[in-house]
Amino acid sequence: MRNPLSKKITDIEPSGIRKFFDIVSEMKDAISLGVGEPDFDTPWRIREEGIYSLEQGRTFYTSNAGLRELKEEICKYQKRKIQVDYVPEREVIVTVGGSEAIDIAFRTMLDAGDEVLIPQPSYVSYLPCAVMADGVPVVIPLQQKNEFKLTAEELEAAITPRTKILVLPFPNNPTGSIMTREELEPIAEIVKKYDLYVLSDEIYSELTYGRQHASIASFPGMKERTLVINGFSKGFAMTGWRLGYVCGPAGILSQMLKLHQYAIMCAPTNSQYAAVEGLRHCEGDVRMMREAYNQRRRYLMHELRRMRMECFEPYGAFYIFPCIKEFGMSSEEFAERFLAEEKVAVVPGTAFGESGEGHIRISYAYSLDDLKVAVGRLGRFVDRLRSER
Amino acid sequence: MRKQILNYLEKNSRIDLAELAVLLDTDEVTIANEVAAMEREKIICGYHTLIDWEKAGVELVNALIEVRVTPQRNRGFDRIAERIYNYPEVTAVYLISGGYDLLVTLEGKTLQEVAGFVSDKLSTLEDVLSTATYFILKKYKDHGTILTRKTKSERMLVTP
Ligand SMILES: Cc1ncc(COP(=O)(O)O)c(C=O)c1O
Questions:
Q1: Strand A360-363 vs strand A347-348: parallel, antiparallel, or unpaired?
Q2: Ligand 1 centroid from CA A98, angstroms
Q3: Any CB–CB contact under 8 A between A36 and chain B?
């Protein structure tokens, strides 16, 4: 028989997270700090609206780009949050999670050989999606000394005549880093200078602590070269509803819409109705969750300091990214031993790119009670490693 | 700061103050001082425990009683409310807008005890015009806490 598979897909590595997941699920009664989704249930108002939409028999396709009410609410939301005006009819597409938006953005914008700058450590899907779109991913290894933020020098050094898109993954999974307005400004200047486009993944925009989320799209001359990707998974605790969106210039979105239309048709209808309710009425729920994450973040930072583990303070998402270099082992070894000896799962930093080596990702999307148990075990583990050395 | 402390204590009054200080990004002394001050000012009126007595195997009868009364000259409802809330078996008394005046909640060991209280004590107060008693059959949620909590989370252990 002929090989059924394309070279493109077989060349793509399976996600490092997947590998780890398989080990963890083999293990009985392991506890986890390895989850990349909220521990909160979706706010009840939203769930109730989803139920109601089913009761009302709203079980048909919506228009391809999404429900009109939802697109309007998204545009109002973006105006409030990032001070950018988008036109509901042309400048937003409702997608199946931010995931779909990332995929169709690359497939719409890249020709073979076009380079995509991907700062790492970062979310696992940018690189394979760029490859499947015939793009050439070019990794920018971010540095701990910069708290894993992208600097103008790093960006400029990575640009070639083939560079077309810069992925801007902040607030960042897995590092928890955010980029402030001041830090984005020089990045925006370089993007304009070299005539690049930006895919700004702002899926964690609701989750910043004591710092305002800023979008690069809000700088002069940037709206027309930026796709802002966002969604309901993180801030609204709606991962399973599979709902996200992309906002950007009509000229790009009208072409993305073709792909979305042929490959997806439309995002889930009842999720869309539920999300309208979320945007209209659930600021309070989102704030409550943000405050809870913030408390856990402070608790974890406090405990890590007490253990004398090296860690910069993250101001976004729900991750911290401590350094484990002092123990003289790789992130993967550390994570595997921690799991084997203390039955706690964390994700090795390398699952998010080689520059994550020497770090582990700890998620605080867990109740304080769960965190306390896990932190107790981490303390014990760290003590043991130190006494071994 | 006070509001944040109260928000926390309202849900978990047993939290360690040092821990609360970490969660709220301040120091333990500040928290301890604020809590003490709020206790003095009777902002914090007590620390209670939410108990599912049914699970504890203790039978208790809870009732809600609507009471219509004649308000008294110069004192409105306060005097009559006081006469009711001083009974220890009364757990709450609220002045209510609408079809009746006072909502009284009551806790007793048996149905007879509660019924007896209503007929002997409450109805016989001279300003009480009428009462309507409702027995609580099941508590689903109390003080913001869902008592019939569902099973454990179905999140996967590791996700990107
Ligand atoms: C940085 C980042 N972007 C995008 C996604 C995709 O989210 P969704 O497809 O659920 O919107 C995730 C999920 O983990 C993420 O961490």
A1: antiparallel
A2: 6
A3: yes
pLDDT, averaged across chain A: 96
Q: How far is CA B36 from the centre of its chain?
A: 22
* DSSP conformation letters of A75-115: HHHHHHHH-----TTTSEEEESHHHHHHHHHHHHHPPTT-E
On whether residue A120 sits in a domain, the answer given is yes
Query: Whole-model pTM?
Result: 0.92
Q: How far apart are the CA of A203 and the centre of ligand 1, in A?
A: 6
Rg (CA), chain A: 21
Chain segment A287-324, per-residue pLDDT in tens:
999 999 999 999 999 999 999 999 999 999 999 999 99
Degrees, nearest 5: CA angle A366-A370-A371: 75
Across chain A, the runs of DSSP E, i.e. the strands, are: 31-32, 92-95, 115-120, 136-141, 163-168, 197-201, 226-231, 244-247, 319-320, 344-345, 347-348, 360-363
Q: Are residues A227 and A80 in the same domain?
A: yes
Please say whether the beta carbons of B111 and B61 come within 8 A.
yes
B61-138 folds as Alpha-Beta Plaits (3.30.70)
Indicate the DSSP class of residue B122: I
Range of the domain at A301: 7-42+284-384
In 10 A of CB A187, how many CB atoms? Answer: 23
Domain locations in chain B as residue ranges: 2-40, 61-138
Under a CB-based contact definition with an 8 Å cutoff, are residues A167 and A118 in contact? yes
> Is A302 within 8 Å of chain B by CB?
yes
Same domain, A234 and A291: no
Give dist(CA B47, CA B113) in Å, integer: 27
User: Per DSSP, what are the bridge partners of residue A137?
Assistant: A116
Give the residue from A247, A281, A315 where a domain finishes.
Answer: A281
pLDDT bracket for residue A106 (50, 70, 90) = very high
Find the CB nearest A123 among B22, B155, B160.
B160
Structure confidence by residue, pLDDT tens digits, B126-137: 899 999 999 999
Q: How many domains does chain A have?
A: 2
Residue B135 pairs in a beta bridge with B63
Q: How far apart are CA A326 and CA A57, in angstroms?
A: 59
Q: Cα-flanking dihedrals φ and ψ of residue B155, to 5°?
A: -65, 145
Taking CA–CA distances from B7, the nearest residue in chain A reads A288
Residues A290 and A192 grouped into a single domain: no
* CB < 8 Å to A368, chain B: 23
Residue A285 and residue A315: Cα distance in Å, rounded? 20
Query: For residue B25, which residues of chain A lie inside 8 Å, CB to CB?
Result: 298
- The whole-angstrom separation of Cα A283 and Cα A347 is 31
All residues of chain A having their beta carbon less than 8 Å from the beta carbon of residue B159 are 17, 21, 34-37
Q: Looking at residue B157, what is its pLDDT?
A: 86
**Position A1 in a domain:** no
Q: Tell me which residue of A132, A110, A33, A14 sits closest to A366, measured CA to CA.
A: A33
Q: Which residues pair with A32 in a beta bridge?
A: A345
Q: What is the DSSP letter of B76?
A: B
